[in-house]
Design goal:
Elements: H1 4-16, E1 26-30, H2 33-43, E2 47-48, E3 55-58, E4 63-67, H3 72-81, E5 89-98, E6 108-117, H4 135-147, E7 152-160, H5 169-177, E8 182-184, H6 187-196, E9 201-209, H7 220-248
Parallel strand pairs: 1-4, 1-5, 5-9, 6-7, 7-8
Antiparallel strand pairs: 2-3, 3-4, 5-8, 6-9
Length: about 260
């Protein structure tokens, strides 16, 4: 195997237990098995990839969901592997930490951009290239949220490769200088690697904690409560948006820098 495409075509089934032609044209990405499980129950479709690094499920409408794991390295891996399928649109359903008072727990965020603090994306594009979603995809997701009369936030998200930073006052002071609305571990990587692989991409993030204050740091109990209250709505919006975008959305064209 000499080319990136040859490797991706071989590795996508190996990582997911799913053949390339079994994936749909539109996809949801997540890092939570519960989202894949709920998707499977909703549409009565099989979960594939047990024993593999990533699990997937695809419904009769041709919408797929993939649990790719946590962190920027895994985000880069799945966006590289999806070059084997060339999906028409990919939406990441992830959780994030709210960094502003306006980013309250349970609120949804459509990132206008992401700051590349994770380092992984530097292997794909120079640091000065902005990490951006596909505008038309985000516009359609925004419309679906508005149709439900729900509030959402927009703003810049900071993506980091640090999982445990909530204790670090110096890092928290740095975050305050950036005027970012939230922090996560995947969004910037997904945007940049999607750009490189010419995959239309977006992210709908759910605020799961407020880590800038000690009492807002995520715990097992607080995360369970957030998941029970908001996760099914999060998934439902993603399903609705990515099911209808092929029929009702504007064509998404890929532009390179």
């Amino acid at each position: 195997m000499k080319t990136k495409l040859e490797i991706a075509k071989n590795w996508l089934p190996r990582y997911t237990g799913t053949q390339i032609d079994e994936f749909g044209d539109y996809m949801l990405l997540t890092n939570f098995h519960s989202y894949v499980n709920d998707f499977s129950k909703k549409f009565n479709c099989e979960i594939k990839g047990a024993g593999h690094p990533m699990q997937t499920s695809t419904n009769a409408d041709g919408l797929s969901i993939i649990n790719f794991g946590i962190g920027s390295a895994n985000a880069a891996t799945i966006m590289d592997l999806l070059a084997a399928r060339s999906p028409k649109g990919v939406l990441f359903l992830g959780k994030c930490g709210g960094l502003k008072r306006s980013a309250e727990i349970g609120h949804f965020i459509l990132p206008t951009a992401a700051i590349r603090g994770e380092g992984t994306s530097n292997d794909y594009k120079p640091p000065e290239v902005p990490a951006l979603p596909s505008f038309k995809l985000h516009k359609f997701v925004s419309d679906k949220i508005a149709d439900r009369n729900l509030e959402y936030r927009t703003g810049v998200v900071y993506t980091t490769n640090r999982r445990v930073w909530e204790w670090d006052e110096k890092f928290k002071a740095y975050l305050k200088t950036l005027s970012t609305i939230a922090i996560d571990m995947e969004t910037a990587t997904l945007f940049i690697v999607g750009l490189v692989n010419e995959i239309p991409r977006g992210a709908l993030l759910m605020v799961s904690d407020t880590p800038m204050i000690p009492e807002g740091v995520k715990t097992e109990e607080s995360d369970r409560v957030v998941t029970e209250k908001y996760a099914r709505l999060h998934l439902a919006i993603g399903i609705e948006a990515m099911t209808e975008i092929g029929e009702k959305g504007e064509p998404i064209k890929h532009f390179t820098y």
